[in-house]
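quick q for whoever's on today - can somebody do inverse folding on this one?? i tried earlier but teh output was garbage lol. tokens:
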């Protein structure tokens, strides 16, 4: 797999965070297909962080995962932030670019406030129209498709009128964006709705059965923790058996997609991450590669047959 190339469906990577920057650059990332980084960690031009990423982009395939655009914010998009993202995308040519489907900017007299938090959007027609407009604008500015990730949350809105998968199916149809499915978030959300144990897994399976396979562009495998009956993701917890069950179901129903093992900002050793990458590959191997690897065709919003989620075969597949 070449640096700067699109990611093939069976690629498995890691969320590359600061504790492993030096190790990966000095020793390499054997057994890992690509590195995903947080976009906002590298936005500032010049300096050591940007130079690190430019060097990594010459050596590894990359994926950029944004946490700050807040495309669900009613106040609109921060144009300066979006321009910085475009410059970074142009500089490193990542295989995929993703953003959270959330809001994080609100109005106040004088200037907007950036809340530095991922807050849930309503699953309503009004919210869908607003988010679709902002996704269109972001994709136009970046000159490429982006993947939108539903967030883990402990809140819901009274105005919710659509199920979460139906909402994101509609968003993808309207904008041509793809969907990043964090399987750990499906468990977190089920726990925060009061479901437990097998009921959480069944809720996740139902979610995966409702999402349109053609719009799914990436999976995240993540763990969770609970504090006083509230579940959270992104705390560095290992990927649980409940999430592995959802991954197997996703592979069988949706197919393989580039997969990221995400242990958050406090990850374990790189060796441990590599072990979880290897397990993801073993889960894939339980299926016929010809069945899970090809992405399904989809109609883009202009009515043409297209493959807006770009994949590339591995050298082994092409042989």
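ok took a stab at it. sequence:
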């Amino acid at each position: 797999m070449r640096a700067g190339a699109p990611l093939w469906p069976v690629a498995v990577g890691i969320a590359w965070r600061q504790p492993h920057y030096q190790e990966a650059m000095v020793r390499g990332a054997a057994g890992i297909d690509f590195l995903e980084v947080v976009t906002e960690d590298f936005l500032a031009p010049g300096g050591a962080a940007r130079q690190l990423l430019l060097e990594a982009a010459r050596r590894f395939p990359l994926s950029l995962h944004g946490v700050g655009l807040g495309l669900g914010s009613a106040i609109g998009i921060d144009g300066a932030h979006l321009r910085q993202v475009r410059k970074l995308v142009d500089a490193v040519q990542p295989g995929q670019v993703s953003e959270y489907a959330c809001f994080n900017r609100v109005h106040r007299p004088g200037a907007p406030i950036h809340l530095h938090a991922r807050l849930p959007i309503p699953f309503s027609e009004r919210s869908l129209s607003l988010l679709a407009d902002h996704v269109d604008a972001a994709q136009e500015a970046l000159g490429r498709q982006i993947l939108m990730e539903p967030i883990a949350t402990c809140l819901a809105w009274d105005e919710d009128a659509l199920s979460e998968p139906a909402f994101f199916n509609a968003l993808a149809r309207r904008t041509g964006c793809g969907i990043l499915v964090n399987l750990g978030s499906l468990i977190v959300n089920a726990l925060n709705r009061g479901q437990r144990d097998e009921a959480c897994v069944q809720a996740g399976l139902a979610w995966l059965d409702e999402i349109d396979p053609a719009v799914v562009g990436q999976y995240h495998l993540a763990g969770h923790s609970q504090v006083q009956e509230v579940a959270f993701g992104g705390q560095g917890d290992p990927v649980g058996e409940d999430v592995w069950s959802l991954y197997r179901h996703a592979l069988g129903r949706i197919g393989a997609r580039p997969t990221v093992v995400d242990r958050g900002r406090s990850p374990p050793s790189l060796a441990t991450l590599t072990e979880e990458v290897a397990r993801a590959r073993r889960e894939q191997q339980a299926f016929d590669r010809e069945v899970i690897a090809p992405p399904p065709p989809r109609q883009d919003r202009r009515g043409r047959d297209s493959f807006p989620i770009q994949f590339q075969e591995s050298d082994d597949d092409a042989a």
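fwiw The chain has eleven helices and 14 strands. also The longest strand covers residues 113-119. so keep that in mind when u check it
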